[in-house]
Design goal:
about 180 residues, alpha+beta, Tetrahydropterin Synthase, Chain A, five-stranded mixed sheet, two-stranded antiparallel ribbon, binds nickel (II) ion
């Protein structure tokens, strides 16, 4: 997809607004013109989201620390015999709308991809014992979100994975944006 240049009459213009916060009026007008030109040339962008669900058991326990430290730090999540969560996983993909399909990415493809690369590995599993990725990592919501990102980000066929939101309970979630 063609993009409007960021250089006009030898002026290097930033690709994003606002210009008005710093630029002289004339440059601001040129900036507004370039922005409207860019809008006409570029396809609109959207974020597409898909929610998935899985159940898993885990135990948060750092073997390098004492039992007392683990109990105080992780509370009920340190229960020696594990415990389960009903996880909700939101996958957000951002990109240009394909004029041929009207989609950023087909959510049916996204669903199949997430089921085969994430849910198949985590659902009804004991994360500590069954998933090798957590062998040396605590299976916290944060680390599970990183796992989901690593599984999915390189495989998105159109657009770009921008966020993994993992709900561990209806009140607690973590966001991971690949950073
Ligand atoms: Ni827990």
């Amino acid at each position: 997809m063609a993009r409007a240049p960021n250089i006009l009459f030898g002026l290097q213009l930033p690709s994003r607004p606002p210009f008005d916060t710093w630029a002289p009026t004339s440059v601001s007008r040129v900036g507004a013109f370039v922005l409207s030109f860019r809008r006409k040339l570029c396809m609109p962008r959207c974020v597409v989201a898909r929610r998935l669900h899985f159940n898993a058991a885990h135990r948060l326990h750092n073997p390098a620390r004492s039992d007392q430290w683990n109990q105080e730090t992780f509370g009920p999540c340190n229960n020696p015999n594990y415990h389960g969560h009903n996880y909700e996983l939101d996958i957000l993909v951002e990109g240009e709308i394909d004029p041929e399909t009207g989609y950023v990415v087909d959510v049916a493809i996204l669903k199949r991809l997430a089921e085969s690369t994430i849910v198949a590995h985590l659902d009804h599993k004991n994360l500590n014992l069954d998933v090798p990725w957590f062998k040396d990592r605590l299976p916290s919501a944060e680390n599970i979100a990183v796992f989901c990102w690593e599984q999915l980000a390189p495989r998105i066929p159109h657009g770009r994975l921008t966020r993994i939101r993992l709900w561990e309970t209806p009140r607690n979630y973590v966001d991971y944006e690949g950073r």
